[in-house]
Automatic annotation (TrEMBL):
Organism ancestry: Bacteria, Bacillati, Actinomycetota, Actinomycetes, Kitasatosporales
GO BP annotations listed: glycine betaine transport; transmembrane transport
Coiled-coil intervals, chain numbering: none
Protein name: Osmoprotectant transport system permease protein
InterPro entries: ABC_transp_perm/SBD, MetI-like, MetI-like_sf
Entry's localization field: Cell membrane; Membrane
Species this protein is from: Streptomyces violarus
Amino acid sequence: MSFWEYLGSQHEQLLTDAYQHVSVVFQCMVVATVIGVLIAVVTYGSEWSGNLATTTTATILTVPALALIGLLIPIVGLGVPPTVIALTLYGLLPVVRNAIVGLRGVDPSLVDAATGIGMSRSARLLRIELPLAWPPILTGIRVSTQMLMGIAAIAAYASGPGLGNVIFRGLASLGSANALNQVLAGTLGIIVLALLFDAAYVLIGRLTIPRGIRA
């Protein structure tokens, strides 16, 4: 069976796996973004705490994905829970680092002016600092998403959702008729989804970042 014939015969299952892959990556990125930005907001004002936050999230990223998922299985079981926890943890570093850089890069004179007109700390943060820090934060989100698209495939080791299941089935049956087709379909599917995610982020950037800031 050729690759295209395999796609034609298995397109429904592949689409289901692709949807699950996109869903778990998207949901984990939302959680990682919220947690990462909150960490940055709490720590960016202090050099020591900011470095601690960056170092801690960087240390998490050095743990091999297969090892982390394996360690989580006895605690939370198989399936979605270890996948979500692992992906969320891995997605933190680029978001935290870029959010801290973005918040520290806001012109202090703008913050002082906002303080001078009576803005509260939370108002300054929400209306001035975070909007101005949004471009580097979005870049961090893009980097995290690209990483998670690949890491999510390893979640199949713990019966997690996504295209990793197709790849693992192919690897487990190497030498059979469709083994290569399965590995190729899963791999190309992840690449295509990653490119679509990135295109969506480019569009979001164009819609949410003023042209002067982009320049």
